[in-house]
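Encode chain A's predicted structure.
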Amino acid sequence: MASLIDRRRLLFLTASSLLLTGPSAASAQFAAHAPEQPPPDELTPPAPVSITVNARPVAAFDLRDRSRARFGSLTFRGGLILTSAFRGFGGLSSLRLDSKGRQFISASDKGTWFTGRIVYAASGEMAGLADVEAAPMLGRDGRPITERGWFDTESIARDGSLVYVGIERVNRIMRFDFAKGYTRARGEEVEVPAAIRRLPFNRGLEAMVVVPRDRPLGGALIAISERGLDAERNILAFLIGGPAPGRFAIRRTGNYDISDACLLPSGDLLILERKFSLTGGIGIRIRRIGIDAIAPGALVDGPSIFDAGLGQQIDNFEGLSAFVNDDGEIVLTLVSDDNFSLFQRTLLMQFTLAEH
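Encoded structure for chain A:
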């Protein structure tokens, strides 16, 4: 029981430090728990560099019942705690895997690409990472975007060789063509609706997906704010491009904020959410929303398929990706943003979706 109590204390400090990322009045109460972060330029390499990432397995997701594997509609497959001697490793705020779940693209919230390969054991569980590279995101001028003061890179969407990146605080979207040098590609700004530029400071675009062209809304970039709220206090989201551009909203419940999203093979949208409050506690949730419900002016909602709290191995999960493995199973992969804090961890977790 002592280890569970220690873990609860650690997660409380974790959530406390998260408050420092927003203008909450509670921030001051917990300021002593969150170390001061170095400037982005100190955590972003000036040029691509190969790094070593160490991985320690997470054998069980539930801290109280290690035999438990089912959590809502998800079945735990395994997890890793990731560390690296490279100072800029961490702050992972997004994740996209290839169709086999091996090659990955991620981005830190300091304007750094992380790419590499997930290594799997014969049993199918993740064993580690290989061929990991860190590289600065480059602007149109070929210089790191951090030199412009743009660094809070929170969301990634992929459309073939095109990779879209949402930059919070400055409320902008950049597009990179990975066919032109992979992470050496130079980004260009994407024209966005005026409402995106007006999103609250540090509550901007946190999740993006591109709808496949053979689906309804095909070709649209779905961009979702973390906690930009409409008049009814629901979360603002946008359809950029595609056949029906416009604005819609996602019903906000339980004081959850959005931290990422991905599309299932069926086309349904999965929304990754997190919450922290002194009264409501700490929680992670995934909601499933039918893609057919999304349209300009719509208010969409969907059931939770996964909930986790202090009794589970959770942290500040900010990345979500889905792929279909060789057995035809839909596998969800989550990554956490440690905020470069001593109180948090970089977790990489995988679950199988039981209900397609």
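Residues 93 and 318 are 5 Å apart (CA to CA).
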